[in-house]
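subagent[fold] <- orchestrator: predict structure for attached chain, return tokens only, no commentary.
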Amino acid sequence: MNIEIIIDLVIVVVSIIMLWKGADWLVDSAAEIAHTFKISDLIIGLTIVAFGTSAPEFAVTISAAATSQTDISIGNVIGSNIFNLGFILGGTAMIRPIVTSKRMFERDGLFLLMTTALIFFLFFGLDGWTPDDSYSKSEGLLLFSLLIGYVIFLFVKKDPPEEIHPHTANTMSYLYFFIGLVMIVAGGHFMVKHASNLARFMGVSDWVIAVTIVAAGTSAPEFATSVTAAIKGRHGLAVGNLIGSDLFNLLGVLGLAGMINPSALSSDIYGSVFLLVLMVGLTLFMIRTNWSISRTEGTILVTINLIRWYADFTG
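subagent[fold] -> orchestrator:
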């Protein structure tokens, strides 16, 4: 084993440690900040934490859009959202069942479903369902405007905290929040880069690396944050992080990508968009049943994502 491979292996291990320790600090400090401002874990998860953990998707998508790589810019967003609802939400529920709420379902979940359906119709075209329909600058502006409106609504109609936190936020809380966020974003970046090097050394193709390691790596911040939040009993933060990340990806990242470089759409996109609509609908159904996502339901979500990966590998 040469020195480069040993370095890659060490960096992957360090990246995993960064992800989990960063998530630990992020969850605790976010809860303190939320309760100091008398808002719920769910809103903090839907906004600040979600936007921060979506930074890898933002970087990949905007960079791809700027260089006219439309399939990568849009595919990364759709793929990451499916991964969030499949592996991350499902995997988190398998580790510890997640308590949900009526507000989570009626306000945030239904808004995610409507957003996903809107993108489905924008991509297909409302008048002919043509597979070569274009994604225009005005459509990107529409999506981004919806995100701005949604965030303003959340903070105007802020939910009260679910429970009183034993500590209020101080200067160290904000410092730990920032350091935790940087650690999980950097950890995800280094994990993708050096795990990909290891995979290439073992003879794995770039396509398999892209749909597995890169997809998992850009979603690693959401996974670390949601699992840590669920273990600590911060269920609103765990689910809010994922719903918020999906909304930020669809409205913010995809909206900016369309505004930067509107272009034609590949027909390869549509199957993934349709699957995402189904995944969001199924997730809402699970949120509503008994107001929790059980281990069995989590297993179903993970299984669907595994089947989707198998289909990708077999062409």
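orchestrator: received. Logging for downstream: The beta strands are 98-99, 134-135, 263-264, 292-293. The two ends are 33 Å apart (CA to CA).
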